[in-house]
Design a protein that fits this description.
The chain has one domain: Alpha-Beta Plaits (2-Layer Sandwich), CATH 3.30.70. The protein has a five-stranded antiparallel β-sheet with strand order 3-2-4-1-5. It is an alpha+beta fold. The longest helix has 25 residues. Helix 2 packs across helix 3. The protein contains five helices and five strands.
């Protein structure tokens, strides 16, 4: 049962975040790493907005990172489309998997910048993902859940 890790990389510089996002896209397209889901998010006037998603390289279909965003930010701070279809069950699954302490830690890391890249990937791809994201001011990775658990929730 592959375990998924959630990596959060935080940026103050838009250009740095976009450079790392492009590098992550390239790594996923080349097969260097496996990604279930990923997103580039920005704090726009107090609301968290997903600017880009990388779900076309994975099976997450945008819902997995949407669930992570739903766990880490209060609902009042999330853009309407962030959590996505079936998000409620995934938010509950990630809340249980991450635990209160990890959610608090990741939330504080996200609060330290204006942009972030959130990547959900199998543990065996975590090092490649972390090494691909070269320009963040802060990065954290935590185990999230098993891929089977998440896919089961997504099937409904």
């Amino acid at each position: 049962m592959p375990i998924l890790d959630t990596t959060v990389a935080v940026y103050d510089d838009v250009a740095a975040a976009e450079t790392d996002w492009s590098a992550l896209e390239e790594a996923a397209q080349s097969g260097t790493c496996t990604i279930a889901d990923a997103a580039l998010v920005e704090n726009q006037g107090g609301e968290v907005v997903i600017l880009q998603r990388q779900s076309h390289h994975g099976w997450g279909k945008g819902a997995v990172v949407g669930a992570v965003v739903g766990v880490l930010f209060p609902p009042s701070l999330i853009g309407a489309a962030a959590v996505g279809a079936g998000g409620g069950a995934l938010v509950a699954r990630f809340t249980r998997s991450l635990g209160r302490g990890k959610v608090k830690d990741l939330g504080e890391i996200l609060d330290s910048g204006t942009m972030a890249i959130i990547v959900v990937s199998p543990t065996e791809s975590t090092n490649v993902v972390s090494n691909t994201l070269k320009l963040p001011k802060t990065t954290a990775t935590v185990p999230s859940a098993s891929s089977e658990e998440i896919q089961e929730v997504m099937r409904g």
